[in-house]
MGMT family protein
Amino acid sequence: MTADPADVDEAVLDVVEDIPVGRVSTYGAVGRLVGVGPRRVARALSRGGAAVPWYRVVRADGTPAEPVRARQLELLAAEGVPVRRGRVDLDAVRWPED
DNA sequence: GTTATGACTCCAG
DNA sequence: ACTGGAGCCATAA
């Protein structure tokens, strides 16, 4: 199957759009659902993240990416996501659950 | 063709 | 818990 880069980006954005309110996912988790590596997810968001709730996607350890760190923490806190010392409580809000 | 860069993740010390 | 190194994959020069 020929997987065009644009299709992959679209699939990533679709998954991010599916993240429920108050929940948080990781680059690796999204990448797994789409079938790509975490770096590919990060690039997809940097490109078209403006159209999806990008702030519901954090790193594997619960810390947000640097360029948007402060902004993301603020948005998550506003959504009711438990944030501890700059780190999201993934155990409580991780999505998908498994 | 090679090299450098980036909204990442994993493993070892 | 923190740091460093290696792996990974697409784009830019």
User: Anything to note?
Assistant: Helices of chain A lie at 5-17, 27-34, 38-48, 69-79, 90-93. Residues 5-93 of chain A form a domain with the Arc Repressor Mutant, subunit A fold (CATH 1.10.10.10). DSSP finds five helices and four strands in chain A. Residues 26-28, 31, 37-46, 49, 54, 57-61, 64-69, 72 of chain A lie near DNA strand B (CB under 10 Å from a C1').
